[in-house]
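Budget justification note: compute hours in this period were largely spent on complex prediction jobs such as the one shown. Inputs:
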Amino acid sequence: MANLQSNFIGIKSPNPFWLASAPPTDKEYNVRRAFEAGWGGVVWKTLGEAGPPVVNVNGPRYGAIYGADRRLLGLNNIELITDRPLEVNLQEIKAVKRDYPDRAMVVSLMVPCEEDPWARILPLVEDTGADGVELNFGCPHGMSERGMGSAVGQVPEYIEMVTRWVKKHTRMPVIVKLTPNITDVRKPAAAAKSGGADAVSLINTINSITSVDLDLFSPEPTIDGKGAHGGYCGPAVKPIALNMVAEIARDPSLRDVPISGIGGVTTWKDAAEFLALGAGNVQVCTAAMTYGFKIVQEMISGLSDYMDEKGFASVDELVGRAVPNVTDWQYLNLNYVSKAKINQDLCISCGRCYAACEDTSHQAISMSEDRVFEVIDDECVACNLCVNVCPVENCITMEAMEPGLTDPRTGKVVEPDYANWTTHPNNPSATAAE
Amino acid sequence: MTQSPFSPGVAAGRLDDAAYSENFSDLHPALDPHEALVAADRCYFCHDAPCVTACPTDIDIPLFIRQIATGTPDAAAKTILSQNIMGGMCARVCPTETLCEEACVRELAEGKPVKIGELQRYATDHLQEQGIHPFSRAAVTGKTLAVVGAGPAGLSCAHRLAMLGHDVTVYDARAKAGGLNEYGIAAYKAPEDFAQAEVDWLLQIGGITLEHGKALGVDVTLDQLKSDFDAVFLGMGLGGVNALDVEGGDKAGVSDAVDFIANLRQSSDLGALPVGRDVVVIGGGMTAVDAAVQSKLLGALNVTLAYRRGRDRMNASVFEQDLAASKGVRIMTNVVPKALYGNGAVQEIEFEYVTDDMTGTGETTRIPADQVLRAIGQTLVGDGLPDLEKGKIAVTGAGRTSVAGVWAGGDCASGGDDLTVTAVAEGRDAAMDIHASLVG
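Corresponding output:
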């Protein structure tokens, strides 16, 4: 069993799996169950100012999209920050932290964009014994209409300003949670860094309408015939989250900013991918909301087995391993040539590769009378679509051509050396290779 | 219940009512909507799909399954029924394991084909249970056609002709329409009077007149039909049964499996149907299996299906053989009946073991038999028919016979498997050919 101990910006937890600030972390009851199930930490659902709490809608708060057999692939929510009184939450946080001192207890906060409210709430949180705070600059629905959440996260100057206030008024580590509803995630990340943030966490949810009721002509979820956009999360958003994490992790000016990875983490493998792209830990929500807290057991055993197999002594050895291999398109090796290859022993003759290639790609797969499908190397550009649509794993593979061989499509000999677009003769801005 | 499975002889009421009800319920309960979605999702939507090639009626299976998967089962039904107007019955009785589901790439990949038959039933039931008939007639042409036989071939032909605007009169010897769907298949494959419901639904197209109790050669003649109508389609099936030509073959207790099945299908009280304690069915086709399994379900203690060749040569599919075995039917192979013994009524049957090339071995065996059911093939009956080929009406192309203006299809015509789905295809194709010849 590998050592999964995690130390994220000085916050220790027995494993790198935290529950994200969300409905599962809104109450003492839930969080105690989470810790009993084995979660390494939680980010308590966002607290607001003292006084009358926010109110939620009384109709559906969630919408979903499904895959086969109603497998939940994406979830959308219009729930606001906690709708329970501040003092109740603070008492519960204190009680839980006291009973689970080895677990990470981070508290998410969202108060108006003025210094005083932040100055008022931070000492109250410190008093609970919490390990840190996360600034919710990400929620895209409801609170953003009141100048909070993603309304702050979409303006780097506000992020920097608020982060600075928070650092001024607390000794706790500060994580800034970023919204993906922007054009370049590096800008808000840089603002958080300038403001003195100890880390960023991302992504928060994505503006979304999950579906439209075609009888009511109303977006889902529908409240009395109307719908408002919600925040999208779950397995469907993972690719977007991975890219944003990588964008920050590989930016030279942001490389030292610790990242808490969020967005569709459902299995140990998803978590490992976030870690490899530079996240120091991960936060989970939709998977727990779909299957319950017990999933963390699979995440722990899976990550542990993987680390043992790779010989990693600590989670830190995995963190960022894939970052050097994330590059820009212009630096990809144009001299690397591969061709699709169909394993006839595995092929079940469904013909999906043929339909995809013939109808939508390069006419590079042939079909015989008796349903044998073969790649035509003269036409194959190695686009990978046949691999992607094939229902049989490993039936179609991309095989690299050895240097010295001639690519029958281009008639050119495969060069052994790396060469990219920056030096390509077709590039009007090409610079001669030195 | 006055008798039990142990009671000797041929007796009714061997089981209690609950057992009959359980035994003759749906072989495959209908898929519920979620099961249908899960089953539909397994379809890969193959290019030029092998299942379609394997279907005698060329139903666009990937399309109708995708229509189910996207929540439009009625559109799926229309896709099915436009190729096969008896898609509902075929979904129940087709040997899918040797047709579409055998060809399914997931059968090749993992031995678990997409449940094409059950999905087809889901779609067609969904539409038909609403009473929706999705087709309408073209403008009336004034042409009149006679169809002989209200079975799958005849009704398929009649429906297509009616849809194309012709007026069709269907003659059938029996009291009810449906042919083998009504009289000839196991009750548990189409319970709740599905065959009649399907006929009623099919006739909603309009333009079809049914003449019951009119047998060709008895009540109507082919010459008369030829002169009264613009064209004739013969789809009367095989009315005769091969005799059991052995010593004692005429003893009491010996009867035809087709009659046994027909009586069972028309019975309103299964407890009143007599069945032997020791039943022997002779034959190796679907009829033999249907008779053997239903004998067992009626409460027979021992049921033996005796076939003259090996199991691999049986016309009944492996699925049917396994179904019989699972119900407790013993399958004897490489045996031919030599003699039946008994004082008046049969009590024992003697078989000789034969090799695969039907050479007698001289070795014999005798087993108890108080009921013997013959299922050794059916024959075409009738005089003045078009030219025959191997005992059936010779056809070329889309069912054209040796007589101008007369088409034939289904079991009475040469070529093709004797399957419901084949009969439907032949009836449909003959209708299109008749239509072309009439309006061309």
